[in-house]
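Journal club prep — side note

Before the paper discussion, L.F. wants everyone to see what a predicted structure for a comparable chain looks like in token form. Sequence:
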Amino acid sequence: MPDHSPELHGAGLGLRRALLGPLQSTEPAAIDFLEVAPENWIGVGGRLGRQFRELVESYPVVLHGLSLDIGGPDPIDTDLVHAIKALMSELGAPLFSEHLTYCAAGGHLYDLLPIPFTEEAVHYVAGRVKQVQDILGQAIALENASYYAQPHRDMSEQAFIRAVLDESDCDLLLDVNNIYVNSINHSYDPVDFLDALPLERTRYIHVAGHFDEAPDLKVDTHGTDVIDPVWELLAQAYQRLGPLPTLLERDFNLPPLSQLLGEVEQVRKLQAAARIPLHARACR
């Protein structure tokens, strides 16, 4: 059986190379954990590698993959999975996660594309997840994805996610910004969608910003501040799950670290509020 044991808490930040220097001069208590894309650090040595390893000694670290292609037609890159396992061991990382998407077909496509929501795809993806988990010796987590067109569906997205997680016995990385983006682009209620997910399998949560292309088109960029409706959806998730570990993603247009830490602190405030019983909040 895969190991699903939780080892995270609090509010984390996605590590980007531009943050290495600023984070080294920041008190570790400002952040509870870091998330690292393994593809960016496997085999990296020299000054940058030393700087990275010195920094991560101060934090719990989780790995979040970008290129495993869990739903694609090409064979799983087992060399990459073994390298991820070695990096997890080196860093003491308790968890590896990936996107419930595909990103290759006879070569890397450099995008995260939606998988058809079909029973056939459920069995196919679950088999690939099991292959990865067998190599790692533990459960992985899959992130609910943002997407802009859906190739085919015989079931709802929520049912597809639940079926994949149940058949593969893996966990959920709950991305509330992706739910919000999809709710605008595909015209559904984000809280209803949240309630239909297998929330009992959630290991941790992502929160991020996005780009407003048009009133009815949001693009999941991770390049702006988190907006109020996404914070509100995160609070809704905490009402259902309690204050699960939550990671702030920011991939580009990086502001000063102090501004990012302000958003990390906003996560902590919402987590603290979630620890207060609902009846006590009503009496305030």
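L.F.'s comment for the group: The CA atoms of residues 164 and 230 lie 26 Å apart. Keep this in mind when we get to the figures.
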